[in-house]
Amino acid sequence: MNEIVYLNGDFMPLENARIPVLDRGFIFGDGVYEVIPAYSRHPFRLPEHLARLQRSLDAIRLEPPLADAEWTRLVHQLIERNAAEDQAVYLQVTRGVAKRDHAFPKGVPPTVFMMSNPLVTPSRELVERGGAAITATDFRWLRCDVKVISLLGNCLLRQRSVDAGAEEVVMFRDGYLTEGSSSNIFAVRGGVLLAPPKNHLVLPGITYDVVLELAAANKVPIELREVSEDEVRGADELWLSSSSKEVLAVTTLDGHPVGDGKPGPVFKQIHRAFQDFKRKVMRQAA
Ligand code: PMP
């Protein structure tokens, strides 16, 4: 089956989808997006993803092009039209096509694009071994809570980890942990799960919420607070979370082992809980 995408009202093969070069997404990176994982063709936490999309649209002062019920219908249709059982569904909205001017154009319809990629979660081997991460100063802007398509900062930072052969980059701002280039970061010290609170410096991850819910349900003590760079560097465990990586242990940081260099006991407990939770949700949806 060919890859099918949705663009401004129609489904079509990916190779037929075209947007004008004056789209503000291309010219200014003026738009927002969402990524929704779908397991066995069931979107995971769709209402939460749509609520975050709404907050992103509000933050950039863009009228929602579609109501949640319409997004929901389109997400299901897109999943049906694509081949993979597990998919990563991308929703992308830009401020539309207009003569180049920083100021917002008037009366211009937004560009609405959706695509689906096969969802590739970490291999069993990676889950059991854990991944490498490097650190970097977080030099992005001050609205990292908004899921904007202008991802140049994230791309530059992510590439550093690729160049170093690592899975992710763990970022600090003013001596405190923010997040990864495309994930949220957690630390465990003395059996306590430390998570940076949601604020303008981090994306409010949908998986971050799931991890905290599962930690609470499994009686893991949680501290939602600023986490210092020293606490991260001396952590017993480090994890990352995202819609595609789910929850993954970080077992080396800048080439040094995290804790004993293996995925820790709290990680294993939450990873198992995550897999169980996923199965339960999918059974209910089926
Ligand atoms: N932070 C950043 C910068 C991200 O790009 C992502 C992934 N989209 C996340 C955190 C994790 O968010 P989620 O769990 O919703 O995928």
Topology at a glance:
Layout: E1 4-7, E2 10-13, H1 24-28, E3 31-39, E4 42-43, H2 46-59, H3 68-81, E5 87-94, E6 111-118, H4 124-129, E7 131-137, H5 152-163, E8 168-173, E9 176-180, E10 184-189, E11 192-195, H6 206-217, E12 222-224, H7 229-233, E13 237-242, E14 246-253, E15 256-257, H8 265-285
Parallel strand pairs: 7-8, 7-14, 11-12
Antiparallel strand pairs: 1-2, 1-6, 3-4, 3-5, 5-6, 8-9, 10-11, 10-13, 13-14, 14-15
Helix pairs in contact: 6-8
4'-deoxy-4'-aminopyridoxal-5'-phosphate binds next to helix 6 and strand 13.
Describe, in plain words, how this protein is organized in 3D.
The protein is globular. It starts with a strand and ends with a helix. A hairpin with a 2-residue loop joins strand 1 and strand 2. The protein has helices at 24-28, 46-59, 68-81, 124-129, 152-163, 206-217, 229-233, 265-285, and strands at 4-7, 10-13, 31-39, 42-43, 87-94, 111-118, 131-137, 168-173, 176-180, 184-189, 192-195, 222-224, 237-242, 246-253, 256-257. The protein has 8 helices and 15 strands. The strands form 2 sheets. Strands 7, 8, 9, 10, 11, 12, 13, 14 and 15 form a 9-stranded mixed β-sheet that branches. The protein has a 6-stranded antiparallel β-sheet with strand order 2-1-6-5-3-4, sandwiched between helices. It folds into 2 domains: 4-118, D-amino Acid Aminotransferase, Chain A, domain 1 (2-Layer Sandwich), CATH 3.30.470.10; 124-283, Alpha-Beta Barrel (D-amino Acid Aminotransferase, Chain A, domain 2). By secondary structure, the chain is of the alpha+beta class.
